[in-house]
Amino acid sequence: MNNKKFTIDKRKCIKCKKCIEVCPVASLSFSPEKNEVEFIKN
After folding, report:
1. Pairwise CA distance, residues 26 & 14, whole Å
2. Which residues of the chain form beta strands (DSSP E)?
3. What is the pTM of this model?
4. Residue 37: CB atoms within 10 Å
5. Distance CA 28, CA 18 (A)
6. Phi first, then psi: what are they for 21, rounded to 5°?
7. For residue 23, what is the enclosing H or E element?
8. Could you give the CA distance from residue 13 to residue 35 in angstroms, rounded to a whole number?
9. Do residues 28 and 41 lie in contact, with contact meaning Cβ atoms separated by under 8 Å?
10. 20 contacts 30 by C-beta, under 8 angstroms
11. Separation of alpha carbons 26 and 11, rounded Å
12. 1-42 pLDDT, tens per residue?
């Protein structure tokens, strides 16, 4: 298993949601309340 971590730079995010579509482990979602991409907590 790969232990690489990544972050979302909210200053650069344009809210296109492409990261959600291409995430290989489906760990991202879009929060309409916060109007931002966030990690799904498991």
Report:
1. 19
2. 28-31, 36-39
3. 0.69
4. 19
5. 10
6. -65, -35
7. none
8. 11
9. no
10. yes
11. 22
12. 555 677 888 899 999 999 999 988 899 999 999 999 999 876
